[in-house]
């Protein structure tokens, strides 16, 4: 959460790059049908941006509604985010932002309780964990058989050691699954 707060106060360029990266990386399945039919191209772009913002930047749960209004049209993208996690380009941007933040703290001679490597790794790991947790949260809020199956599958894969998920994210997924529609 600390990293996300820092990212929201980061330079507009950093946020734009992060959102642009996330938007480009979202598959075209956002054009899938929803209950009312196909999303228009404009709606699909808006959905991709909202989803990218939710996964990578926003820290307010109220913004979940802006994502879940696209319902089944974004489920495949959320499943991909849950299974694959944040893209390497996104993690690189987070790493650079964390390094810059650490250097800024040092420049002001503020005491930092860790080395730069530890500080940066913690921020990148937290971002990656939050990215997956937010995907799980949105899937649970949207609901449906595909969303439920994806949440169950990721827990099964984590249990078998096929995918690495932090314990706090695993617990969050379990909680979201218990509340899934």
Short description:
The protein has helices at 2-8, 12-25, 41-56, 64-68, 75-84, 88-107, 116-142, 145-159, 167-179, and strands at 33-34, 37-38.
Your description of this structure?
This protein has 181 residues and is an all-alpha fold. It has one domain. The protein contains 9 helices and 2 strands; from the N terminus they run H-H-E-E-H-H-H-H-H-H-H. Strands 1-2 form a two-stranded antiparallel sheet. Helix 5 runs parallel beside helix 8, helix 6 (88-107) packs across helix 7 (116-142) and helix 7 (116-142) runs antiparallel to helix 8 (145-159). The two termini are 26 Å apart.
What is the element layout, followed by pairings?
Blueprint: H1 2-8, H2 12-25, E1 33-34, E2 37-38, H3 41-56, H4 64-68, H5 75-84, H6 88-107, H7 116-142, H8 145-159, H9 167-179
Antiparallel strand pairs: 1-2
Give the assembly state of these chains.
single chain
Radius of gyration: 17 Å
Helical content stands at over 70%
**Which blocks of ≥5 consecutive residues have pLDDT under 50?**
1-5
Features:
181 residues; mainly alpha; disordered N terminus; 2 strands; 70% helix; single chain; 9 helices
